[in-house]
Amino acid sequence: MKSSIILILTFITLSGCITREAAVGYVAEGVAVDAIQPGMTEDEVQQVMGSPSTVSDYGVPVWYYLGAKVKRSTLAQDKVASQRLIAVTFDGQQRVTKVEELDASARKDVTFAEDATPTEGNEMNMMQQLLGNLGRFNPNNRR
To answer: The domain that contains 66 carries what CATH number?
Structure first.
């Protein structure tokens, strides 16, 4: 009995050290990417590859498919094992002109602004919020 409890506790303790690999985002299959040819329409690309991870906002329309394989461990932070970025470029008639796989050198890191957007209005404390509506909805003061 005692040895089975020790065995179970050992198993539970060691299970926290197991590393698992998980797919995040779009995991591109070689067959799906090879199926995209110049001249295909946006609808045809979406049928083969699915919805893009993101779309370009300006200039030439580009669909980006971003996927990564992440190693996850219970006791450590996730680590990116591999990452893949596929860009599908369209022309003005919504037809594919180019399909390319971008490497890490094409990536641009974005720094987020830590500024807060100012809002109009009053800053009220808890008592002002609780007592602010007293008398406001008086049935005798109908307008």
So the answer is: 3.30.1450.10
How far is Cα 63 from Cα 17, in angstroms, rounded to an integer?
A: 38
What DSSP state is assigned to residue 87? E
Q: For the chain, how many residues are written?
A: 143
- What's the N-to-C CA distance of the chain in angstroms? 80
| 67: in domain | yes
DSSP letter (8 states) at residue 111: P
C-alpha distances (whole Å) from 137 to each of 24, 124, 130, 133, 141 are: 52, 20, 14, 7, 8
Domain span at residue 54 reads 18-105
Under 8 Å between Cβ of 40 and 95: yes
Burial class (CB in 10 A: 0-12, 13-18, 19+), 130: exposed
In this structure, are strands 19-25 and 54-55 parallel, antiparallel, or unpaired? unpaired
pLDDT for position 14: 62
The predicted model scores a pTM of 0.60
**Number of domain units in the chain:** 1
Query: What are 58-86's pLDDT values in tens digits?
Result: 889 999 998 888 887 766 777 877 888 88
- Does residue 6 belong to any structural domain of this protein? no
